[in-house]
Specification:
single chain, alpha/beta, Rossmann fold, 4-stranded antiparallel beta sheet, 11 helices, about 25% strand, binds adenosine-5'-diphosphate, binds magnesium ion
Length: about 250
């Protein structure tokens, strides 16, 4: 049997008069790739901003590994093992790929600052383990050729993968990907689907993916949630959701 990793209960948030997310409930099982689809403005990114605690909930709660995480600070969410990427990449443009991955460390470290200064053996071991993790992720996502290159000089598709890499360096249990295929060409999108499989099956990471490419969604996801105007329309297998009358109506009306 599968085990529940994340649960959203009656999430609601409004901005001014706009009800961005309304009474939204869903749950994600351990080991799943769970996709969220919906027209522009449906509330998809807002769901990620709620989970990563960049936004406060008006109502509802979020449960991760059995704990209520609704009131945690963003860095505590990261420490719990929830990492994300952004719809428009947020990387340090003037730094190398390697440095961008190493910067993720400050979110993950469990040692105190003073210990870092003293560079105690435990700290050194953690640092070495982290560097090993970074190198493994570079290998996993085929980023070796770009390792020492400056982010600002890289093609968009590579930057997107660097963002995924940075999130993976944090050794997340739950990875939130916001439109990972946007701006990628068909070949890069194909590569992405294989990497998603590796991330999910080899690293054992559960994924929630906001995605508009229905081919990728159908190929990669175990289940799909369709949103429109902040409301859940349907949840189910990709084939069910693609042919669901309410979902089709939401897209046609877009
Ligand atoms: N910080 C914010 N301030 C005001 N309105 C917001 C904010 N974040 C999201 N919204 C609004 O909430 C709705 C959902 O946005 P969003 O979650 O970004 O949609 P999606 O990612 O599905 O395209 C939109 O109407 C958007 O303008
Ligand atoms: Mg969005």
């Amino acid at each position: 049997m599968t085990e529940r990793l994340f649960q959203a209960e009656n999430l609601s948030v409004s901005f001014g008069g706009i009800r961005a997310v309304q009474d939204l409930s869903f749950s994600v099982e351990q080991g799943e790739i769970f996709s969220i689809i919906g027209p522009n403005g449906a509330g998809k990114t807002t769901v990620f901003n709620l989970i990563s605690r960049l936004y406060d909930l008006d109502r509802g709660r979020m449960i991760f590994e059995g704990d209520d995480i609704s009131g945690l600070a963003p860095h505590q969410i990261a420490e719990r093992g929830i990492a994300r990427t952004f719809q428009n990449t947020e990387l340090f443009e003037r730094e190398t790929v390697l440095n961008n991955l190493l910067i993720g460390r400050h979110i993950h470290r469990s040692t105190r600052l003073l210990d870092e200064f003293l560079f105690l053996p435990g700290v050194r071991r953690q640092e070495l383990e982290f560097r090993k993790r970074v190198e493994d992720v570079i290998d996993l996502l085929d980023l070796q050729p770009y390792r020492e290159q400056i982010i600002g000089n890289l093609p968009y598709g590579v930057r997107k993968m660097v963002e995924v890499a940075r999130a993976l360096c944090m050794e997340p249990k739950l990875l939130l990907l916001d439109e990972p295929s946007s701006g990628l060409n068909p070949e890069e999108t194909e590569d992405l689907s294989y990497w998603l499989e590796d991330i999910n099956e080899d690293l054992g990471i559960t994924v929630i993916m906001v995605e508009h490419d229905m081919n990728l969604v159908a190929r990669a996801s175990h289940r799909v949630l369709a949103l429109a105007d902040g409301l859940a329309l349907a949840v189910g297998a990709p084939s069910e959701i693609q042919n669901h009358p309410d979902v089709l109506r939401a897209y046609l009306g877009d």
